[in-house]
């Protein structure tokens, strides 16, 4: 697949970029995409939730009233989970939500996501660019020139660009990431994937045949 390379003014440079079919032209495996997104969401959870149970609540263990003869239900101590101020019955405990996936499955998921975006025409290629200093206004100008003001956009660079990253931080619908850090979740959530010319080489190196 060949795409025209644009500059930050949104105009064609007269050059084209060749997107390899083994990454951007495969039949998407939806189940692998599902598993990769499930893993990503699971790993966002801290798992530090905790509620006090019966044995952890402060209070007397003395039986509130005698077992029989009161005409009411049986009752234990005041720490019972059925009483106000008592412990939580089967409350949450700290745990890990880690989901393990094979490397090949994760690689296939990213290829599937990239292929789905390419088929839908939601990938754009721009020439490498940066700013002299972090400027949110300049980054907004680039989005405007590319007609991406109201589109959730992920800019993919070949290497980490601190200036470009800081320029995009205050824009809700835009983010900047390195090609090797690109994950299935970010790809699928993006309304438009903007690849820099150098990012394509990194993607070939990272997600290509192994």
Report on the architecture of this protein.
33% of the residues lie in helices and 15% in strands. With 210 residues, the chain is of the alpha/beta class. It folds into 2 domains: 2-41 and 101-207, Ribosomal protein L4/L1 (Ribosomal Protein L4, Chain: A, 3-Layer(aba) Sandwich), CATH 3.40.1370; 46-96, no CATH class. It has a 6-stranded mixed β-sheet. Helix 4 (136-145) crosses helix 5 (162-168). It starts with a strand and ends with a helix.
Could you say how many structural domains there are in total? 2
- What are the segments in which pLDDT stays under 50 over at least 5 consecutive residues? none
**DSSP strand (E) fraction?**
5-15%
Write the CATH architecture name of the largest domain.
Answer: 3-Layer(aba) Sandwich
Report the structural category.
Answer: alpha/beta
CATH class of the largest domain: Alpha Beta
CATH superfamily of the largest domain: Ribosomal protein L4/L1
Question: What's the count of strands?
Answer: 6
Helical fraction: 25-40%
Q: Kindly identify the CATH topology of the largest domain.
A: Ribosomal Protein L4, Chain: A
Average residue pLDDT = 92
- The topology string of helices and strands comes to EEHHHEHEHEHEH
Order of strands in the sheet with most strands: 2-1-3-6-4-5
Q: In whole angstroms, how far apart are the ends? A: 21 Å
> Radius of gyration, Cα only, in angstroms?
27 Å
SSE blueprint and pairings:
Elements: E1 2-6, E2 12-18, H1 21-24, H2 30-43, H3 103-119, E3 123-126, H4 136-145, E4 153-157, H5 162-168, E5 174-178, H6 184-189, E6 192-196, H7 197-207
Parallel strand pairs: 1-3, 3-6, 4-5, 4-6
Antiparallel strand pairs: 1-2
Helix pairs in contact: 2-3, 4-5
């Amino acid at each position: 697949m060949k795409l025209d390379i644009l500059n930050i003014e949104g105009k064609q440079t007269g050059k084209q970029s060749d997107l390899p079919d083994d990454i951007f032209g495969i039949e998407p495996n939806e189940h692998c995409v599902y598993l990769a997104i499930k893993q990503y969401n699971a790993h966002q959870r801290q798992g530090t939730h905790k509620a006090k149970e019966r044995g952890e609540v402060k209070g007397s263990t003395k039986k509130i009233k005698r077992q029989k003869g009161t005409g009411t239900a049986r009752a234990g101590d005041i720490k019972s989970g059925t009483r106000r101020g008592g412990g939580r019955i089967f409350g949450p405990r700290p745990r890990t939500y880690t989901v393990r996936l094979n490397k090949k499955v994760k690689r296939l998921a990213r290829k599937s996501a990239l292929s789905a975006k390419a088929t839908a025409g939601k990938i754009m290629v721009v020439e490498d660019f940066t700013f002299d200093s972090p400027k949110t206004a300049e980054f907004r100008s680039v989005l405007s020139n590319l007609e991406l003001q109201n589109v959730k956009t992920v800019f993919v660079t070949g290497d980490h660009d601190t200036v470009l990253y800081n320029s995009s931080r205050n824009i809700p619908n835009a983010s900047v990431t390195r090609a090797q850090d690109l994950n299935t979740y970010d790809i699928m959530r993006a309304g438009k994937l903007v690849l820099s010319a150098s990012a394509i080489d990194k993607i070939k190196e990272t997600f290509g045949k192994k």
